[in-house]
């Protein structure tokens, strides 16, 4: 078993770090808000005072952070990862970020003799807790093979996508599809509500083979119950669709539906729902249609 450092103990990170500990790895953790380390220290982790300190004696370094800015601070910043690394280590970025961020990290790590993988994850908090994520990976094949025992307690499958940045690109393509599905579910439910359908029955029909999607079955019941507690926050979806737009712009790829959803996500965050679950995107559609989904009643609205 290996000495690991895990940085960023958010919804995803703390579950992944716990699974690495449970698998017998020795794990040093660091988080910007120090108290978030306590639960893992109780499970046998060691807490470090800075990213640089956390990574010093690690064989492999993992982190799960929201965006490019956080990576700038944690990896490139003062007392950051790059100040503590040494040749021969392996760094794994589990965050969903733009491929350029992965390539910038690869260059910096290579200068220090450190291997690097961009490895965003699919699945959410429940999958992270159950070691049931799906991981898409970019980087050198040898580094990917080396990471296999580390990925095993985190995931049900890993997918090698190619060189540095290809894991990140796949992560954003997944985000594009997820965002479109959340918007589709919201539009469908708002229209169904106005048409007077029972939303539990609508969700039953949306579970049929013609429509079924884990996004619909995962988010649908919460929307109908008006439970918007964040599992995957709307602000992270906002960041993701922004990065999809940046990638599509660079590659001159029209993404018209995604662009429309991006505007909706931006407006939902502007309305103050960023810290809620990504399914809170439906609140904007409710406002636009002047209807609230939780208020159950049969018959078309307005009759
Ligand atoms: N949640 C999901 O369902 C899901 C699914 C797939 C992919 N992802 C991706 O996984 C990554 C993590 O998501 P999450 O939901 O776990 O995020 P989260 O719950 O919001 O946690 C974010 C973590 O990053 C830290 N952080 C934020 N800004 C920082 C900064 N400037 N400097 C240092 N640390 C900073 C936070 O520290 P504090 O504790 O100090 O705030 C926290 O540990 C994101 O890239 C997300 O897109 C998430």
Number of domains: 2
Average predicted local confidence, pLDDT: 96
- Low-confidence sequence ranges: none
CATH topology heading of the largest domain: Rossmann fold
What is the end-to-end distance?
A: 66 Å
Give the cofactors and ligands. NADP nicotinamide-adenine-dinucleotide phosphate
Could you estimate the helical fraction of the residues in percent? Answer: 40-55%
Number of helices: 14
Number of strands: 9
Please tell me what the overall shape is.
elongated
What is the SS-derived class?
alpha/beta
Q: Can you say what the CATH homologous superfamily of the largest domain is?
A: NAD(P)-binding Rossmann-like Domain
Using brief descriptors, characterize the structure shown.
303 residues; alpha/beta; Rossmann fold; N-(1-d-carboxylethyl)-l-norvaline Dehydrogenase, domain 2; nine-stranded mixed sheet; 14 helices; 52% helix; binds NADP nicotinamide-adenine-dinucleotide phosphate
Q: How would you concisely characterize the structure shown here?
A:
Helices cover 52% and strands 14% of the residues.
Describe the 3D structure.
This protein has 303 residues and is of the alpha/beta class. The protein folds into two domains: 3-163, 3-Layer(aba) Sandwich (Rossmann fold); 170-289, Orthogonal Bundle (N-(1-d-carboxylethyl)-l-norvaline Dehydrogenase, domain 2). Helices cover 52% and strands 14% of the residues. It is built from 14 helices and nine strands. It has helices spanning 11-22, 38-42, 51-55, 68-76, 81-84, 99-111, 125-129, 141-151, 166-194, 199-206, 214-225, 234-250, 256-273, 281-289; strands at 3-7, 26-30, 46-47, 60-63, 90-93, 115-118, 121-122, 133-139, 155-162. Strands 1, 2, 3, 4, 5, 6, 7, 8 and 9 form a nine-stranded mixed β-sheet that branches. The longest helix has 29 residues, at 166-194. It is elongated and about 65 Å long. The chain starts with a strand and ends in a 14-residue tail after the last helix. NADP nicotinamide-adenine-dinucleotide phosphate (NAP) binds at residues 8-13, 31-33, 36, 64-66, 69-70, 73-74, 95-96, 121, 124-125, 231-233, 236.
